[in-house]
Amino acid sequence: MTAQRVCIIWNPSKTTRRDLESGLDQATSAAGSDFEAIWFETSEDDAGQGVTAQALAAGADLLVVAGGDGTVRAVAERLAEADTGTELAIVPLGTGNLLARNLGVPLNDIPGALNRALGGEARAIDVGWLEIDLAGGPERHAFAVMAGFGLDAHMITETDDDLKDKVGWLAYVESMGRALAASDPLEVRITADGQAHDGDSVHTLLVGNCGMLQGGFNLLPDADPSDGELDLLLLSADGAVGWLDTMRNLVWDNGIKRLATGGKVAESSDSATHLRVRSLRLELMEPRVFEIDGEDLGETTRVGITIQPGAVRVR
Ligand SMILES: Nc1ncnc2c1ncn2[C@@H]1O[C@H](COP(=O)(O)OP(=O)(O)OP(=O)(O)O)[C@@H](O)[C@H]1O
Question: Any idea where the DAGKc domain is (predicted)?
Answer without folding.
Answer: 1-134
